[in-house]
Amino acid sequence: MADFTTSDGLRLHYRDEGTGTPILCLSGLTRNSTDFDYLWPHLADARKIALDYRGRGKSDWGAPESYTIPVESRDVVELLDHLGLDRAAVIGTSRGGLIALLMAAMAKDRLAGICLVDIGPEIAPEGMAAIRSYVGRNPGHANRKEAVAARAGLMAGFEGVPESRWVEEVEKHYVEAPEGLAINYDPALAQTVVEPDPDTAPLDLWPWFDAASELPLAVIRGSNSDLLSSETLAKMCERRPDMIVAEVPGRGHVPFLDEPEALDVIAKWRAML
Fold first, then answer.
1. Which end of the chain is more exposed for a tag (fewer CB within 10 A), N or C?
2. Is the pTM of this model over 0.85?
């Protein structure tokens, strides 16, 4: 791990390994760079970069109002500047995919391609409700063993996952604390997913998606996802018939990315870069 300082003075951690085409891996809302540990060995011939966003993982916590997609997109561009990279291809999981799409709208010249993981321009309400139910809250488990035992029941839509994978997941996303396990991100992230004002029209993200025109584009959906619906995926395919697509069976939000279907899409997408 290394770090750099953002324009507003936060120290952010990142991983930078290997040589070849730069592939920047951007994780979900509460997650961090370890999310891509399962994919990492399959990108042996690439330069692999992964960021801990502000307030997540080993990065500094920021002001709660700075936990926004525009600010985090700026952080990503500043990371590319820090690394001296004109462009990178982005694999964006959930929140990371939205960051990539905003970059397509605001800084398209910095992108070589986008692979979206279980995210699109329309976000299913049931998926957002599920996210609101846990963001910012400690899991309530006294130890890792308890957390592992509960993990399969908490991860809706995941089938046939060995216990060893849940052990890895618990290790990645919780830390030991005197009162039991604790989340390894700023609890203030909960303020970013509050229930929207019913009198305010939701932000239209389709222009962000359309801004990715001409970029190599792929999408990986968990077949049981509650965040990216099959209907939204169909709309995305209508707008981008050249988009590479796969649905990963037995996975909800989000696939681990070492499933054969996910690896196949990523390999085909990389061949277009």
1. N
2. yes
